[in-house]
Amino acid sequence: MPDINQEKQKPIDRIGGRQKVASIVHDFYNIVFKHPIMSQFFKNVQQQQQESQFTDFMVGRLGGENVYCGREVKPGYSP
Questions:
Q1: What are the tens digits of pLDDT across the range 47-63?
Q2: Closest Cα to residue 45, out of 21, 54, 67?
Q3: Per-residue pLDDT, 77
Q4: If we measure between CA atoms, which residue out of 28, 31, 17 comes closest to residue 54?
Q5: % helix / strand / coil in the chain, to the nearest 5?
Q6: Contact call for residues 45 and 78 (beta carbons, < 8 A)
Q7: In the predicted structure, residue 13 carries a pLDDT above the cut 90
Q8: Residue 15: partners with Cβ closer than 8 Å, 6 or more residues away
Q9: Distance CA 30, CA 17 (A)
């Protein structure tokens, strides 16, 4: 039987909060920045800055504090 309290939680809280999202984003970008093809898209980008901005973006999208201040996301990527 589903936990009613969990169903009322925001997605960010069910995931484990900002710290968990930051950990997932860090692991993801560690792979991307080392990949021979994918890393080419990030040639002039600092990994730490990319992780910080993407973490802010994801936290906001998952119902947490919206502090993302990067470029506007194209409509095709919006929910």
A1: 999 999 999 999 999 99
A2: 54
A3: 56
A4: 28
A5: 65, 0, 35
A6: no
A7: yes
A8: 21, 62
A9: 20
Instruction: Report residue 60 as tokens.
Output: 């906001």
Decide: 18 and 55 in contact? Cβ < 8 Å: yes
Express each pLDDT in 20-56 by its tens digit. Answer: 999 999 999 999 999 999 999 999 999 999 999 999 9
CA angle 43, 54, 30 (to 5 degrees): 55
DSSP per residue over the chain, as a string? ---HHHHHS-HHHHHTHHHHHHHHHHHHHHHHHHSTTGGGGGTT--HHHHHHHHHHHHHHHTTS-----SSPPPGGG--
